[in-house]
Amino acid sequence: MTIDLRRRSIEIITANQAPTGAYIACPNMDDYAYSWFRDGAFIAYSMDLVGEHDSARRFYDWGAQVINGRADVVARALHKAARDEPLGPDDYLHTRYTLDGREGNDDSWPNFQLDGLGTWLWGLRQHLALTEQTALPGAWAQTVRLAADYLHGLWRQPNYDLWEEFGDQIHPYTLAAIYAGLRAAAALTNQPNYETRALNVRNFILSEGVRDGHFVKYLGSDAVDASLLGLSVPYAVVDPGDPRVQRTVQRIEAQLRPDGGGVQRYAHDSYYGGGQWLLLAAWLGWYHTCAGDPTRARSLLDWIAAQADAHGHLPEQIPQYLIAPDYYEKWVDWRGPIATPLLWSHAMYLVLEREIGD
Ligand code: BGC
Questions:
Q1: What's the rounded Cα separation, in Å, for the pair 300 and 284?
Q2: Active site residue 161
Q3: Which of 13, 123, 153, 333 sits a CA distance of 20 to 30 A from 57?
Q4: Which residues in 83-109 are b (16+ Cβ under 10 Å) and which e?
């Protein structure tokens, strides 16, 4: 019997949304028993695309509560950043929270990441557009201003990338999410100064984030990272047909798709040995659909569907053609099996399916 992966993905996401509105990253892995702004925004977007608007609304309510409850942290972060004072662990908004909206208690795990809030603002804008709401509800208006001011005040600071690594670098992916977040804030609040700030970030990406005609993983590097797809889709720093994006995608395809199937994160990844990520395969398909190549997108959708287990669960990654095979067992010993089901994988499957237009 073939599994209806669209229906299963909606069921799995619905079943794993907490009463608070938070989406757990993965219900079967202690490390992932949190809700991330990044994962959550993509998950909410997928739910909006399939008409589950109430689920998305509850996630944005949860995020708004988390952020509005930390206006003091935002003020402190902006105050210190303006004076070039270093930020301590209580001086910035964390990247993930418990399902009831508290900070986690593992201090050794990096939390200073800016992309998630940018993605959250981008997703909120999509939610309002897809639900045809023109006015921004009061609590969300406060959140949009807090989040956008925070991103504007901190965007030049090195911070951890979306994979929670390389915290001493500045990442074009992160800047792209900030750009999209600031543009969303401009549209949602009717404040053109957020648009001006967004354009400054974009100019910076285009002047500092390109090398040999392609975008780079972080400033000063000449490597690519599969997440750079985000610069065109969905953050729209540049069009999918932009030559710099095309060169970036060619490199991602040549260097990070070992068998022409799934997509690895970056060249020296050792997390669970550095396997093929389902959400990145979907992201590449999303890009190809927007670039006018639905055939390539469809083969990526099929590849993802073929990775579902008997319960219709999609994992985070597939341990095939590993970059660093020795690390696979080490991670399994440290943290348990690869996260399955990963809600973000299901979300990106739904996004790609909708984009292809079945
Ligand atoms: C990934 C993050 C993700 C988190 C939860 C981490 O391993 O690097 O991008 O937000 O898992 O899915």
A1: 8
A2: yes
A3: 153
A4: eeeebeeebbbbbbbbbebebeeeeee
pLDDT reported for residue 1: 57
269 C-beta closer than 6 A to ligand 1: no
Is 152 close to ligand 1, i.e. is its CB under 6 Å away? no
What is the CB-side half-sphere exposure of residue 21 using CA atoms within 13 A?
A: 18
pTM for the full model? 0.98
Q: What is the pLDDT of residue 105?
A: 84
Cα 114 off chain centre by? 11
What are the structure tokens assigned to 279, written together?
């959400």
User: Mean pLDDT by 10-residue block, N- to C-terminus, for the chain (358 residues)?
Assistant: 91 98 97 97 98 98 98 98 94 97 89 98 98 92 98 98 98 99 97 97 98 98 98 98 98 96 97 98 98 97 98 98 98 97 98 91
48, 103, 115, 161: the active-site residue: 161
Query: Which residue is it, tokens 């957020």?
Result: 194
Which whole-number Å values give the CA distances from 295 to 5, 230, 243, 344, in the listed order? Answer: 19, 20, 21, 23
Classify 213 in phi/psi space as left (phi over 0), alpha (psi -120 to 50) or beta.
Answer: left
**Centroid of ligand 1 to alpha carbon of 346 (angstroms):** 14
3-state helix, strand, coil in the chain (%, to 5): 55, 5, 40
Q: Is 316 a catalytic residue?
A: yes
The single residue of 164, 165, 242, 253 carrying the catalytic annotation is 164
pLDDT of residue 2: 78
225 labelled catalytic = no
Instruction: Indicate the DSSP class of residue 86.
Output: P
Residues 6+ positions from 174 with CB-CB distance below 8 Å: 113, 114, 115, 118, 159, 161, 162
Phi, psi of 4 (to 5 degrees): -85, 95
Indicate the helix (H) or strand (E) that contains 214: strand 214-215
Are 285 and 349 contacting, i.e. CB atoms less than 8 angstroms apart? no
Distance, CA of 264 to CA of 271 (rounded, Å): 11
